[in-house]
Every structure is written in structure tokens, then in C-alpha cells.
Amino acid sequence: ILRCPIIVGAGPSGLAVAASLRRLSVPSIILERSDGIADLWCHRTYDRLNLHLPKPFCQLPHLPFPAHLPTYPSKDHFLDYLHRYADHFSLRPLFGCTVTDARFDEAASLWRVTAIRRNLSDAPMQASSPELEVVEFASPWLVVATGENAEPVVPEIKGAQAFMGSLLHSSEYKSGVEYRGKRVLVIGCGNSGMEICVDLCEHGAMPFMSVRSGVHVLPREMLGTSTFGVAMRLLKWLPTRVVDRFLLIMAKMIIGDTEKYGLKRPKMGPLGLKNKTGKTPVLDVGALSLIKAGKIKTVRDVRSLTSNGAKFVDGEEMAFDSVVFATGYKSNVPFWLKAISSFHFHDLKIDTDVFSAEGKPKLPFPNGCSGENGIYFVGFTGKGLLGASADAIEAALRISQRWTSLSKNRDLVL
């Protein structure tokens, strides 16, 4: 039994919680399924990726980015920062530790977490040493920090098995160098889909971007500073609908009418839509000018794939060499986190849970960080690294209050 919090996930959210706890003199244990920190950023992002927001909005608590880094740090810059962050706070996750089950033991008021741990040592295996072992932990606190982007989402499309070209998710895409001269269908028009199309163009490929529904495209900067920064400052004084109206007026002045290029704007404004559905507006990093120039072509939603291409909902059929699914990610929490509480109704015990089947907390921030039964969710607010940092600080403060009370009466097991 651990008298310290169990943190599941060694990405930015998990590191931020552990660092915030350490500053409050609270030890923790981090369980991570991969062999290093920030697995998504290390292995499932494309080479040209840069942070879409300025670095002050992306840094983790208690340690800013180095001053010499550019306003929009690259993927490698961010990974270097995360490793420096872990070293600075002496964070040592247990790698190769995949949580398979976590449930609350009401009788003992403890979280019981089961994980399968892989042997990551370079040393030769002993005959008696299993390559995999089941390990169990118990603690009054569980911090769920696996994030909203744990598993790739690949939609089922009719005819996919018959397609003779390459099919891959954006998590597998690295560079457009191997697509030179090829026709590539990118399904999805979010930030990743747009940037992959830019990358394909720069490497001599011919990208076609499938647009299923409306999308808000905003300039990355306006009024001499970041669009996100402008929005955050305005939201301190004005309601969301007014800020949305301002952003759309400015966007039309700076980048023009996107609808004439097949990028219809939703009826709801960009910030309102983000708050309601979690759909992030696209911050343009060069895709729009390539669309205007005809180098990136927009096409309708895909109805089905064929052996050599795709059919679209408007009946048009085109040939493609490759298809890239820029269709996002989902949480994997529902697969391992069990119901956390129960109540009785007419002699029936009914389990309840705070996570939806889609892997989203049912209660919005900060209620999702309330710590009922000692559980905290960090990085699920749909507000990116800035939201994860706020979650981490709040969760650490609440845990430290209870930890201090317990530590006065019990020995800590580390």
C-alpha cells in the first residue's frame, strides 16, 4: 500500500502533477506504459510539428521554456523541455507499466491498480525472471493523466480493405518525403490534416483534403501577437459570443472568405464551438495560401474507398496512391478505469462512473477535479497544455492537504 498518489501517464499532464506534488513535498509514483516520457510526442507525431500556440501557453507549471527558444517551439524543442522538466524535479516514472485495471475499494478507501510490467532492462533475462509480470498498487489517491489523445481514431470506411495503396493514421505519418509525385488523400481538416497537407506540398506530393463538416480557420497571429493570446485577453472582459464575433471579423479581414475554397464555417463561433464540442479551430500555418493557389485541393466527405482511390458523397470518384487519416485520437480510460462509486435503489446496487463511453469526464472542469473518492483527472478539459497545467496545480493542492493529514497518523510506504 502506497501512502502517496498513483499517477497514470508520463506525458505532460502526469509530469505536471508529479512536479506540482514534489514542490509541496508530496511523493508520487508514475506508471507509464511506454519506454519513455511523452510517448505521443516522441513516436506518434510528424517531423515538422511545431507548437501551434506561443510557448507561454504551453509550458508546464513551475518551469518556463528557455528564453532562447522561438515563439513556437518545434517538436524536438518541446521534447527536450519535457526531459529537462523531468530531470529538474527528479521524476522517475515506472516505464513499461501498462495499467489494465483500476477500481476503488470502498471498504478500505483505497484505489487498487493492476498493471502488467515489461522488463525493459538491457541485462540478459534470468531463466526464472518473467518477461512480463503483474504488479499491484494501492493508494488513497489515483491521478488519471493519460490524456485525451491516448489512442488513434480510424473511422470505418466501406471499401478500405480493397484499397491497393497505403492506408495510415496521422500518428504513423512522419514526412512527405516518401510521397513525392503521389496523389494523397488526407481525411480530416483539423490542425493535423492541414499541416500534413502543407508538408506533402513541400515534398512534391499532390494532397487532397477531405472536408466532412464545417471548420473555423483563423490566422495564427493578429494585431501583432498570437490569435490565442488576443482571445484569452478579451475573454477576461467580454462574453464568448462577442469575442467570437471579433475573431471572425478579423479573420475575414486577414485571410478572406474561406467558404469559397470549400471550408465552410460552422454557425457557432470558434470559441463557443470549442467549449461545447471540444472541436479546436484551425490556426493557419500556411495551408490556406496553398489551398488558394490550388496546390492543396479540398474535396467532399468520403463515401467509400475503391481499389485505386475514393468515391465522395457528391458522386465524384478520384484515384489516389495513399490515404492518411487525420481523424484524431480518443481516451483509453474506459478500458481500465472501473466504476468509482455505487448507490442502492430498491435493493439493487447500481454502479456509477464519471467517464463517458467516449473517454471524457462527464463533469466539466473544475468539478472533474473534485477528488471524490480520491480520484483526479488531469488533461481532460479540452484546453490543451494550458488546461492540463491548471488541472495539475489544483489536483496537487487538494491531494497535499489530505496527504499531510494522513502522514501525521500513518507511516508512508514509498
Structural features, described:
The chain is an alpha/beta fold and 414 residues long. It is built from ten helices and 23 strands. The protein has helices at residues 12-23, 39-43, 75-88, 191-202, 227-235, 240-255, 270-277, 287-292, 333-336, 384-407, and strands at residues 6-8, 29-31, 97-105, 110-118, 132-139, 142-144, 151-152, 166-169, 183-187, 206-210, 217-219, 221-222, 225-226, 282-284, 297-299, 302-305, 309-312, 317-319, 322-325, 329-330, 341-345, 348-352, 375-377. The chain has a five-stranded parallel sheet, covered by helices on one side. A four-stranded parallel sheet has the order 2-1-6-23, with helices on one face. Helix 4 links the parallel strand 9 (183-187) and strand 10.
Write the layout of secondary structure elements.
Blueprint: E1 6-8, H1 12-23, E2 29-31, H2 39-43, H3 75-88, E3 97-105, E4 110-118, E5 132-139, E6 142-144, E7 151-152, E8 166-169, E9 183-187, H4 191-202, E10 206-210, E11 217-219, E12 221-222, E13 225-226, H5 227-235, H6 240-255, H7 270-277, E14 282-284, H8 287-292, E15 297-299, E16 302-305, E17 309-312, E18 317-319, E19 322-325, E20 329-330, H9 333-336, E21 341-345, E22 348-352, E23 375-377, H10 384-407
Parallel strand pairs: 1-2, 1-6, 6-23, 8-19, 9-10, 9-19, 10-15, 11-14
Antiparallel strand pairs: 3-4, 4-5, 7-20, 12-13, 16-17, 17-18, 21-22
